[in-house]
Predict the 3D structure of the following.
Amino acid sequence: MNLLNGRKTARLLEENLKVRVEELKEKYGRVPKLVVVIVGNNPASLSYVRSKEKASRRVGINGETIRLDEHTTQAELLEVVYRLNCDLEVDGFIVQLPLPKHIDENIILNAIDSKKDVDGLSLLNAGKLMNRQKGLVPATPKGIMMLLEHYNVEFRGKYAVVVGRSNIVGCPMAKLLTNADATVTIAHRYTTDLAYFTKQADILVVATGVVNLITKEMVKKGAIVVDVGINRVNGKIVGDVDFENVKEVASMITPVPGGVGPMTISALIHNVVEAFLESHEKTV
């Protein structure tokens, strides 16, 4: 069993990106800028934001965090979004999810300029991915592909099963795997006889938020297993895959934590640099 070490891989990719950022500064006179908007005090969200701030510093891009009160109205948040859309010094920004229940996430996400939508969650970027057009791709699926490519995983002709159907992970993950010439099935926690599908998978990606949903008996020997789940159980972070037992049959597997999480942050930073390049190449 080989560990798909997301933390180590992310650091290696960041070192390369740091050099690229220095080159951009030399060429354009400034570095890319990422803004993170967070509404409220969700502990998990605050943790993600801190990770993004640290990654920005490591790579050398300009990072800013806008913290808003949990009682911020939808109209007030939209004002912030429109201001960032128009700010020429901001290359990419995200509105950290989840948002308070009184705010419609879809309205906020689709108000973000698609060229600055470094979370890749707007309808326009989702449509570009679906039609194989160049756009910004959701960070978690992009990070997973970066991780698998780093470990020289072959996609062409492989059977991949994605357990999870969210717009943030499951659906774009399936599309990226399809675009890489894998044959893909999307399943979820309610799929009848889920094990029937997972046991056939050469590549298994699990993103459901259900602790230990995938057991050893549900995984084919030699499969590559990517666990996207982040669940807190008795103060410990665990995934959707029974890691200790599944690692006995998998050829490669991501740990939780230290697998997909760091790669998500790395992919986000890559998206910021990509957005910077896209805007500057058009104006030069």
Notes: The chain has ten helices and eleven strands. The first helix runs from residue 6 to 28. The CA atoms of residues 6 and 155 lie 19 Å apart.
